[in-house]
Design brief:
Length: 422
């Protein structure tokens, strides 16, 4: 009964901690990031104290909420801050906690040099505890620094293999780093207090439970607020913050350039930079990638009948409809005039044909010209590696199939003939 009640309190503490810290993180642009960082930092001494002396019985072992709830939560919050912001921001709490804890440790050592008095009978300073806390603070600070770097780097490296699985990367990073942290922290507890092995296993199970709980809460947060994942790093660990920050700022600048002025989608110059790289990466990873050329049917007659300004408005509508019809990992470019290019990473030929058909129907069902007539598009589809091993080869093949679609009556998709390349 006691274990079950403690487990309920354990979950409540984790939910309360996550809710409070996430609220401060989410409101950082209104109330300032300093509120979140201060709340993150002030609990470290309490976490260390609880991890040293405050243990409760749960159904799966004896654990300390200080270590399994609050310290684990702090690491997850650091990773969330990185995901929501960038490396230049997340280094503030990491360096701040590291340096602040070293100052605390230094002051604690100076305090031990004092000749103390009893402010009241029997009220004596526990110098032994202060000494042990000094060691715990030093060791805990070192582990925190390593853990904070490790959880970010793991999240980044996993992005190479799981680019679309933000929640899974968040969970795996937390599980691995908290396992390492439990092993390191238990080593010192065993040295100072001869803590039994049950303390290690109970604490490890509690941290795994906390990682699962925080990951579930993070998934809920992502679902509600649509948080964006961080970018993937290939930089060495030696200067991780500077490297990650430089890359993120470069990517942000790049995302704001190479835009078509009329439609707002990426333009041809951006396509000629991005698509060859993405095709090469897919070929190296032995994963399919498909390229689709979209051409607006009878667009010249629309300009002739209704004027170029109306034609421009129509192109904007079509670009918006195309953007809505593709997935989050897909890329849309304006190729020129009334032509667009869609890149579909990880999509084989059959999937690309199916999705192109959906785009074709979506346009004809939704878009109308100024006379109320349905606007249609024709599409040509090519897939690597079967249709070519380069961007230019795919573009040429898709372009040839686009003209076959137009010659066959328009408002259709043409891909590889059946039986070829399969």
């Amino acid at each position: 009964m006691t274990g079950s009640w403690n487990l309920i309190l354990f979950v409540c503490e984790a939910v309360l901690y996550f809710a409070l810290m996430t609220t401060l993180l989410h409101l950082r642009h209104r109330i300032g990031l300093g509120v979140f960082l201060t709340a993150l930092g002030v609990m470290h001494f309490v976490e260390t104290y609880l991890a040293a002396v405050f243990y409760v019985s749960l159904p799966f072992g004896v654990v300390s909420p200080g270590s399994s709830v609050f310290f684990a939560g702090k690491l997850m919050m650091i990773l969330m801050l990185y995901i929501q912001e960038d490396a230049s921001t997340v280094r503030q709490p990491i360096y701040g906690l590291f340096l602040g804890n070293l100052v605390t440790l230094a002051i604690a050592q100076l305090l031990m040099l004092h000749q103390t008095v009893e402010p009241a009978p029997g009220q004596v300073a526990d110098m032994g505890f202060l000494s042990d806390m000094g060691l715990l603070m030093l060791w805990g600070t070192t582990l925190l620094y390593i853990d904070a770097l490790g959880i970010i780097l793991l999240y980044e490296r996993l992005g190479k293999f799981l680019p679309r699985w933000t929640i899974l990367r968040f969970t795996v990073s937390g599980v691995l780093v908290l396992s390492f942290d439990q092993l390191g922290f238990y080593a010192l507890l065993g040295h100072l207090y001869d803590a039994p092995a049950s303390v290690f296993w109970g604490g490890w199970k509690a941290k795994m439970a906390a990682a699962a709980l925080y990951s579930g809460l993070f998934a809920l947060y992502q679902l509600v607020f649509r948080g964006n994942g961080a970018l993937h790093s290939r930089r060495p660990i030696g200067d991780v913050f500077s490297d990650l920050t430089f890359r993120e700022r470069y990517e942000d600048l790049l995302a704001r350039t190479g835009r078509d002025v009329l439609t707002g989608v990426y333009d041809r110059s951006r396509m000629e930079i991005e698509v060859p790289r993405l095709v090469r990466e897919s070929l190296r990873a032995n994963t399919p990638i498909s390229l689709v050329i979209v051409d607006v049917d009878h667009f010249k007659s629309i300009n002739d009948r209704f004027g170029h300004l109306s034609g421009d408005d129509l192109l904007r509508e079509i670009a918006t409809a195309l953007q809505e019809g593709i997935g989050g990992d897909d890329h849309l470019f304006r190729y020129g005039g009334e032509e667009f290019v869609i890149l579909l990473p990880h999509a084989g030929h059959e999937e690309a044909l199916e999705r192109s058909g959906q785009v074709c129907r979506h346009i004809s069902d939704r878009i109308r010209n100024m006379a109320g007539e349905a606007v249609t598009v024709s599409l040509g589809v090519a897939t690597a590696p079967e249709d070519g091993g380069s961007f230019n080869a795919l573009l040429a093949e898709a372009d040839e199939r686009l003209y076959k679609a137009k010659n066959a009556g328009r408002n259709r998709v043409v891909g590889r003939p059946a039986g070829i390349g399969s």
